[in-house]
Amino acid sequence: MKQSTFLSPTLRDVPSDAEVKSHQLMLRAGLIRQSAAGVYSFLPLGLKVLKKVENIIREEMDLSGAQELLMPAIQPAELWQESGRWDLYGPELMRVHDRHNREFALGPTHEEVITSLIRDDINSYKRLPMTLYQIQSKFRDERRPRFGILRSREFLMKDAYSFDRDYEGLNESYRKMYEAYSSVFTRCGLDFRAVVADSGAMGGKDTHEFMVLSEIGEDTIAYSNESSFAANVEIAPVQPDYEKSNEAPLALEKTETPGQKTIEDVAAFLHKDAKKLIKSMLFHADGEPVLVLVRGDHEVNDIKIKHVLDARMVELAGENESASLLGSVTGFIGPVGVPDHITVLADHAVRSIVNGVCGANEKDYHLVNVNPDRDFSVKSYEDLRLIQEGDPSPDGKGTIEFKQGIEVGHVFKLGTRYSESMKASYLDENGKAQPIVMGSYGIGVSRTVAAIVEQHHDDNGIIWPAAVAPFDVHLIPVNLKQDDQKEVAEELYAELRRSFDVLYDDRAERPGVKFKDSDLYGIPVRITVGKRAGEGIVEVKPRNREEKMEVHKDELADTLKQLLNV
Amino acid sequence: MKQSTFLSPTLRDVPSDAEVKSHQLMLRAGLIRQSAAGVYSFLPLGLKVLKKVENIIREEMDLSGAQELLMPAIQPAELWQESGRWDLYGPELMRVHDRHNREFALGPTHEEVITSLIRDDINSYKRLPMTLYQIQSKFRDERRPRFGILRSREFLMKDAYSFDRDYEGLNESYRKMYEAYSSVFTRCGLDFRAVVADSGAMGGKDTHEFMVLSEIGEDTIAYSNESSFAANVEIAPVQPDYEKSNEAPLALEKTETPGQKTIEDVAAFLHKDAKKLIKSMLFHADGEPVLVLVRGDHEVNDIKIKHVLDARMVELAGENESASLLGSVTGFIGPVGVPDHITVLADHAVRSIVNGVCGANEKDYHLVNVNPDRDFSVKSYEDLRLIQEGDPSPDGKGTIEFKQGIEVGHVFKLGTRYSESMKASYLDENGKAQPIVMGSYGIGVSRTVAAIVEQHHDDNGIIWPAAVAPFDVHLIPVNLKQDDQKEVAEELYAELRRSFDVLYDDRAERPGVKFKDSDLYGIPVRITVGKRAGEGIVEVKPRNREEKMEVHKDELADTLKQLLNV
């Protein structure tokens, strides 16, 4: 491709609204352009990378035995009403009316459409198992689109759905996808972890997220420094065992703590370690009040509350509710003397507190020398807190550390969530109807491209892994007015194109401009045709190394094959 | 691919709502499934064909020097307001609000988005010419979606846009696209014509439609039986020369024609040839009244009126307006005595009428022996009528015949329609800003698939041209319970897969079912493993021929290469 007429405009300045490196570099290197908040065009250079990632995904999907199909973006509201998600999904679901005022969703995902396809066309155990996938633009009206194509409102996604006779089959389909995903992200040159995650609004059971490690990631991964344990902090289980001190229980006392509302304030005011404090928070779980207790140095995990209570919706109660139910406000509430109709749940760590501190359910007062099961009772002790760095790993091996991650893939065991609500069944060997057992699997294709840039760049630009690079070789004559340089450059362009994808900088620009653009683009190998062109010698520089080599043009093809590993 | 777990469900019955063959066969062969009116999924077999067509298009686009990019489906309303199309486009444009109540269009085409991209990133003559294309789902809320994917509301389209310094450049870019389109449709095995067409709502000048000949086509092509002339009847010019009879002009008379309102009625009532009658129709062109005259046996072409008057909107006047402006109603209006403020335009054919008949502008009366330029005057004689079968070809060679066509492609010279309204300019050698001269080019990718089926089928199913077939070979063992058949079939499946794309019918179905499905699918070559399997002999049948051949399995690869032309 000749660069003079290739649409690959570079920007020297960092666009002011681009906060993260991948966003900055993708704009500066002319890979993407914004049309509206969270809505982007892929320019030719960006699309070439997107297609490479797409093809890696397609190859791995096909290898796993999945079949590609293509469903529409426009989805009838009726299907979403059948599954119950039309009302549940909220403002992220973009809704559109046709000229007859019929309602449609712009597909953010395709569980409904695929389940309706399958229920019509699959009816025998003989056709199962089956996994179907598509690669397609998806729409989600993000509350806060940002970071360029990392969190956008229209994005390319690979979504797959597996259909099995039973959970054993699902486990196998899930395993295949998990492995295919691992291959995809490995081939894309990403440093990633598959972590246990929460199934969220999708419904379903087991689920893993594929996280690309990056400090700008919006998710936090808790992993063991000594084992393969890794989970999203949202869901990571915490070891239930805590050491209890031998201290003798003292008599309960009430003490004035004027204006001391936070754990830090109270601990400092009373000269106590935060570990002695009992943090009490009032929630509503499906409308019922629940008082949740964790240790002062811990944080409540509301996803865990939801799971423990099997509740659909858990939210923090307001100040007014605290006052009316417990007689006080946040900062001074506590478990002692709580009315019977309020469920009290405590984290395992609370059980080990001796002579602790909690709110007195009276403004500006706390209780000291509080002892669980003596001064208050608890419905049950559960795992209710967020895991923390330094915690023992839940698998008993090593200590927990945190890293930030960008979610690029997600595998779910849906089970019969959709096949039951939408009546997708098959007839087994005995002619009996059984619900199809489903899995759902997604890869953010455009987000993966951004994640690659986050992990592969330096101060000068992108450093593409060869497998996803837009071109293999960037061929740069220093000065096209020099006949020998021009001749060698044209000759190399003609020859190398037969085996490699070559971007040829045939522009009448200064060498400095050409090299700056080249570093920005990040094509794996740069070939500079300069002063020694007359001798047939050119300079070869891999983008990911500092050193340059002088190579005779006759040996160039071999050098390139080595560098590009082909 | 093993058929037992391949999602390719066939239907024995013709779906009741499928009117045309391609729709029926694509449903029956399991290529597509409907989600809503005009909204379809492509099942794996259909997607394979779609991808083949897409790849042919991509190859031809790349060969022509066009660069692929990908723009978003969601387009900000502001861009459409800039171009002026937000209000013009009508209900076909699907509009959507985001959570902040900002308005967006779901892209039916991308002139606005690409023009805004280009104005930001292209500013020098050095970067021109350039042609960009994308292959993407488009959205048009058709008033009457029908014929399956021939006229649907979400469909795959290839759209391309060229950018040039001047019209000479545009002509060259247009020529390249025209040639690329011809190659695409030829490679897809289509019998098509490139016809001159109307530029319609797109704005712009020269334009050709690529029409696949088919009796179900919604467009009518006027073509010469002796030359390469072909045009959409909407636009086809008519030869302006008509023979005038030598008859002596007679005196104008008024005659009673009670209730005789149509041309046929009046001609019969007065015993006149319809060619003697002058058909008079009152239009509003951008609000101004225009009386248009054509010969009784001709039809007015309002697109031509629009062009002659350079009007934005031309519509037939209502009965009340005829009455108030001309003193009578449709059926009895005519050009004699028309007030000066009404423009009178006549088709060339009217000039040759001698002693004609026209409405008397009085209910139930006509005038006879009317002679143009004696009894009424005309602002100008123009080409104002629809071409008809039997007319001489406008290029002077041969006679016009009609055929129906399906529009699969369209090339437009837009000129500066968008670059002027949206301010996309470049600096020329002298540093002077000039508007970029644009072209716009589209191919209906999914529609092309349907058009292929319309032209390639028989009573039993589809007959895919090899270049777009979902598989090369359909391998069918008659009875898998026979060990020798099973053994040969499995061996052939393993071997042939190395060079061909093979669908292997490994289902435990009766041979009749397998052959019926096979004919429906229309894979170019069927290999039947039957009774002579033990001798290593199988039956080969090309889908497009009646004869079967017995071939030894060792010679099979050669036979296939010959049949598939690879």
From TrEMBL, chains A, B:
UniProt keywords, alphabetically: Aminoacyl-tRNA synthetase, ATP-binding, Cytoplasm, Ligase, Nucleotide-binding, Protein biosynthesis
Signal peptide feature range: none
EC number annotated for this UniProt entry: 6.1.1.15
Family: Belongs to the class-II aminoacyl-tRNA synthetase family. ProS type 1 subfamily.
Upper lineage: Bacteria, Bacillati, Bacillota, Bacilli, Bacillales
Primary role: Catalyzes the attachment of proline to tRNA(Pro) in a two-step reaction: proline is first activated by ATP to form Pro-AMP and then transferred to the acceptor end of tRNA(Pro). As ProRS can inadvertently accommodate and process non-cognate amino acids such as alanine and cysteine, to avoid such errors it has two additional distinct editing activities against alanine. One activity is designated as 'pretransfer' editing and involves the tRNA(Pro)-independent hydrolysis of activated Ala-AMP.
Enzymatic class: ligase
Organism whose genome encodes this protein: Alteribacter lacisalsi
A single GO BP: prolyl-tRNA aminoacylation
Protein's recorded name: Proline--tRNA ligase
